Amino acid sequence: MGRSDHVSAPPGTGPLTARLVGRHAWAMTRGRRGRIAAAAAAFFVPAALVWFAAEEFRPTPDEALPVRVALAALVVVGANLAWTLGVVAFAGYLDLAVGDDYFRRRPHTLGTVLRTLPWGALVVVDVLLVLALVVGLAAAVVPGIVVGILFGLVGPVVVHERRRPLDALRRTARISRPHWPLVLGLVVVPWWIEAVVSESVREAAHGVGLLLHAAVEWVLAGTLLAAVGVLEVALAAELMARTPDRAAGPDPAEG
Question: Where are the domains of the chain?
C-alpha cells in the first residue's frame, strides 16, 4: 500500500486475511488520529462520567430509600445504554467520517457527517443489540459471543448501506457468519480486551476525582476504543464488498 493514506485496491480485492484488515486499519488511522480520538472522546467520555458520578453518589445502606435507589439504578442503566450506543454509533460515524475518505476518496466535513448519519436507526439497533447481548450473556458466555460475532459490525452496515434496523441486523449476520473467525478475532476479542483493560484502569483510578477520571476515560477512548472502531470499519468494508446486496439504499452524503 506504500505510504498513501488511501486504499490502493478497492475492498473485496484479493484474499481476505487479518493482515489485510489490519493494514486497512493502520492506514486509515494515519493522518486522522486527532479526528478519531476527538470523536471517541465525544462518544464515550460523557457516558463514562455519568456512570462514574452515579457510582460515586450511590446511596449507602442507611440512605437506601426506594426512590433514591431507583433513580441511581436508572442513571447507571442509562449510562450503560449510552456507552453501548457509543460503540455502535462510533463505528458508524467512523465509516462515514473516515472510511469514506480512505476507501472511496470521499472526504466529508464534520457538519455533513453529523447531518447525514442515520441516528434513529443507530439508536434502535443499539437497543436491539443490548437486549440480544443481555439475553445471550444471561444464557451463557457462548451465546453472548455468538451475538457479538453475528451483529458486532452492525454500525458500519447501517451507515454505509443505509438500512433499516432489522434489515441491517440480518445483513450484518449474513456477511459475518461465513467469516466468523475474523469477526471473533478482530472485533469480539478486542472488545473483551478493551473491557478488561478499561475496568482494571478504572478500578485503579477510583477515587481520583472527576477531572482526572475524565482524562483517564479520554485516554481509553482515544486508544483502545478508537482502535476497535477502526478495525470494525475496515472489516465491515471488506465483508460488505465481498457479499454484494442490491437492497442497499442510496448514500445521502454523496454528491
Answer: 18-242
What dihedral angle (degrees, nearest 10) is formed by the CA atoms of 188, 191, 197, 202? -150
Checking if the pLDDT of 84 tops 50, the result is yes
If you search the block for the grid coordinates 472522546, which residue do you land on? Answer: 41
Nearest-CA neighbor of 10 among 106, 90, 110? 106
Block residue for cell numbers 475518505? 101
Tell me the whole-structure pTM to 2 decimals.
Answer: 0.81
Q: How far, in Å, CA of 139 to CA of 119, rounded?
A: 30
What pLDDT digit, counting tens, does each position of 3-60 carry?
456 776 789 888 999 999 999 999 999 888 888 888 888 887 776 676 666 665 555 5
DSSP letter at 247? Answer: T
- What secondary structure does DSSP assign to 169-237, as a single string? HHHHHHHHGGGHHHHIIIIIHHHHHHHHHHHHHHHHTTTS-HHHHHHHHHHHIIIIIHHHHHHHHHHHH
What is the CA 68 to chain-centroid distance, rounded? 32
State the DSSP code for 9.
S
Q: What are phi and psi of 251, to 5 degrees?
A: -95, 110
Q: How would DSSP label each residue in 74-89?
A: HHHHHHHHHHHHHHHH
